[in-house]
Amino acid sequence: MPIELLAATKSGLEAVAARELDGPTGLGYPAKPVSVGRVLFTGDESAIARANIGLRTADRILLRIGTFSATDFGVLFDATFALDWERWIPRDGAFPVSGRSIRSRLSSVPACQKIVKKAIVQKLRAAHRVDTLPENGATFAVEVALIDDVATLSIDTTGVSLHKRGYRDFVTEAPLQETLAAAMIRLSVWNPDRPLLDPFCGSGTIPIEAALMARRIAPGLTRAFAAEQWPTLDRNLWQQARAEARDAILPPAPLRIVGADVSGEALALARRHAERAGVSGQITWLQRDFADTHSAQEFGCLIANPPYGERVGAIEGGRDAPSRGAHATNEPDPAAVDALYASFPRILNRLKTWSHFILTPFPRFERLMGREADRRRKLYNGTIECTYYQYLGPKPGTPADAAAEPFAPPPAPPRPRSHADHPRGPAPAPASFAERDAKQAELFRNRLSSRARHLRRLPSRGITCYRLFDRDMPDVPLVVDRYESRVLVVDLLGPRSGRGPEEHRAWMRRMVDVVAEVCETARDNIIVRRPRAGVGAPPRTPTHAAVDDALIVHEFASRFLVDLHHPLTTLLPPDRRRLRAMIRDLAPARRLLIGTGDAAPAAVHALAAGAAAVTILAPDASMFELARRNLELNGFVDGRARLLRADALAHLPTCRDLDLILIDPLMLADGRTTTDGWNLFRDHAAVLNLALDALAPAGAVLFATNVENFELHESKLAPCRVQDISHRLVPPDFENRPFALRCWRLIGDR
After folding, report:
1. Which of 386, 441, 528, 579 has its CA 20 to 30 A from that of 263?
2. What percent of the chain has pLDDT over 90?
3. 663-716 confidence digits (pLDDT tens)
4. Three-state SS string across 362-389, please?
5. Angle, to 10 degrees, between the axis of helix 46-54 and the axis of helix 236-248?
6. Does domain 3-156 have CATH number 3.30.430.20?
7. What is the biggest distance separating any 2 CA atoms in the chain, rounded to whole angstroms?
């Protein structure tokens, strides 16, 4: 009997995985992308084993049990109960349930998980004719995914993600995942007859994946999978799939694959990983700087994931540490970043007949190269949004003097003149920004109009405060948020954009005119501000005029005063809309503490949903006053709401028996210090441990931040269960920036 399977992929790789399944050299299963990150295919039970062992660009294989429309919990329960769970899950099977909800009326993921779990329990009890389910056998991880009110229920057959091939036991600080490396190769024009060079190979992922492809070594041949332990699936299928994969392996043959890196330590790891993968004889490893890149071979492919941002800290001469630190603690050196990327056109021009494939988030990359890419694709390297630029050279077999269009870097700035200079004529007049700004404004108008059309239905769904534009264009570093009749424009760079003060003011006036035109509003309704106050700036004390001038907007069934002039927050940040909805759904009959500078909206939603008691901490004077006004505006002046001018670090030791705590601190301009005065990176574990101590049994802490490069120190936390729920909280207006907000749920161990 055919079964339906879903290959889960990274966003942007759905078509690549589909070709692996259904292409000329694929596994032979008809496949089609059905949603972001999901490719549907059908087959018999052997397809589970063959896909897990053979797919290079998928992260996991899901067994789709059913899909149906679900707009209320009753339908979700009944439709889940009707599915054929007993075919797969035995009476002792463990079946944890995870979930996600995107643009769906059933927005509370925990509630959906409980409903699905309850329905499966009742179905299995009836089917297996038992009163209890011990759940001490093999694991059948269930996912409920609600997208546009359509529920898809599936069981994970993979277990540990498919990017874990098994050959990499030690890694550099932020290695490129094997599945993404394989996709970069698939998206290039490389084949085993052509040379391949990775000049930033780090621990060797791209060259190793290329060698595995060339020899047709299945990526999952030597690892284990969750479904191998299922008693309901014939284990012989796995033996047959592995035998088939072994038979397909080609014998070693000369390959022209080169991995180069300036770090000797990284290359030692690369050699070790190649040996463990069984391809050590097919790759040449070179220790050299990118500046020394050259090749006498022709018609090759350069495929690279160069350092960027904080990953570039060690690129300057004599770098001896691994260079792949995507989460390194050293501050990035802007000069080193610029110097590295400024060298790209000159160095790549040496490889005249080659094709070049570069994955980077570096802004204005095409302008720097002096040439538009022939193809480009948005991909995510971990949580970093990147673009995969593809520059195609001539095809092999073209005349020997054939060459790709050269890269033409922008001219270097003129050197300062000295008294020894003797110009032959007057210096040319400085170039005007006007022509470039006019072109930027037109591109900005097109992008903003497209976003406005895409989000036009949000108000009909009750969402009247949302993000229209978020640095969607590297040359327009603005954030544009709509707050009903007003529009907030945040200028992220100010005069640091490279223009002088007067030129920048003129540029901003032009951009504000575009916003007014697209949003069909008067300029008086547009507020322009810089993002944050300076480091250590004193809290803003509101005047009566400032509070009276605050704007009243709506969210769900409540009303809120927002302050669009506040230097840190508007009080109703759109990226936290689904976090506030989650708190609303969890609040009934529970005791909550909301420890965040913009606490009022979450507290109002919790009280409106029937929370037993809510304590609100507002250390900032303006936030305290706005919180008080918002509670009054929504009629919550009874004893259930308690508003304190206090910070979490000082107040948490006095708390006990709370059911839900939100820790979501406001940050000063340094990106490290909270308005409460504690350091996010250094002190968050101590604050969270205080919160865990304040919980009642079965209570939970929600911890949120949008500080980039933040890493949760789980090892420093008191015993608890930690769940990263960030992906469940992405609003529709943030689908282009799904990692704008990070959020974890901590469940106390008592």
Report:
1. 386
2. 58
3. 998 877 666 667 667 788 888 999 999 999 999 988 999 999 988 778 899 889
4. CCCHHHHHCCCCCEEEEEEECCEEEEEE
5. 40
6. no
7. 98
Distance CA 624, CA 541 (A): 10
Is the Cβ–Cβ distance between 143 and 728 less than 8 Å?
A: no
Collapsing DSSP states into helix, strand and coil, what is residue 106? coil
* Segment 533-538 long-range contacts (CB within 8 Å, at least 24 positions apart): 533/567, 533/568, 533/668, 533/669, 534/669, 535/668, 535/669, 535/670, 535/673, 536/668, 536/673, 537/567, 537/668, 537/669
C-beta of residue 598 within 8 angstroms of C-beta of residue 666:
yes
- Number of Cβ atoms within 10 Å of the Cβ of 297: 13
- Contact (CB, 8 A) for 119 and 153: no
pLDDT given for residue 411 in this prediction: 59
**Could you tell me the fold of the domain covering 553-748?**
Rossmann fold (3.40.50)
User: What pLDDT does 599 receive?
Assistant: 80
What b/e readout covers 533-561, taking b as 16+ CB neighbours within 10 angstroms? beeeeebbebeeebeeebbebebeebebb
Are both 435-529 and 553-748 of the same fold?
A: no
Note the CATH architecture for domain 178-215+250-391: 3-Layer(aba) Sandwich (3.40)
Structure confidence at residue 540 as a pLDDT band (50, 70, 90): very low
pLDDT for the residue 534 = 39
SS3 77: helix
Distance, CA of 276 to chain centre: 30
The β-bridge partners of 593 are 615, 661
Domain definitions of the chain by residue range: 3-156, 178-215+250-391, 435-529, 553-748
Gap between the Cα atoms of 629 and 622, Å rounded = 11
Instruction: Select from 3.90.226.10, 3.40.50.300, 1.10.10.10, 3.30.750.80 the CATH code of 435-529.
Output: 3.30.750.80
d(CA 71, CA 78): 12
DSSP per-residue codes, 456-482: TTTGGGTB-EEEEEES-BTTB-EEEEE
Q: What's the whole-number mean pLDDT along residues 192-196?
A: 96
CA atoms within 13 A on the CB side of 8: 18
DSSP 34-58: EETTEEEEEE-THHHHHHHHH-SS-
- Answer whether 0.90 is exceeded by the pTM: no
Cα distance between residue 735 and residue 727, in whole Å: 10
Alpha-carbon distance 433 to 587, whole Å? 53
